[in-house]
Design brief:
Layout: E1 2-3, E2 10-11, H1 13-40, H2 43-69, H3 71-74, H4 78-103
Amino acid sequence: MLKSGCMARTLTASEALSWYFKRRPAFVKDICHHVFFANRNRGVDRKFHAGYAIQAMAEPARVNAFLLQQADSLGLDTTIRTALENDAAEMHAYTARMRTYLANSWA
């Protein structure tokens, strides 16, 4: 069971999987927007977009980690498992880069 951050309810693994892939296009678009502008800008703009990118990744990364823990019980096929693993790796890399930008926005 996963406590949903945006709702006052608990999601089962199958509900969390449905939530994740239903909202994936929207949060990928939001994350990519902020990562693009954080990479492109410097100074205050870079910090702004880096902070928003980290915020945009928080909930999807948490749900993704939960789904990967529950992958065996969900009986995920290899394409879904690979997509979740790739998303986790990308969000981890983006988070590390955005934290670097927050630490030094002029680098």
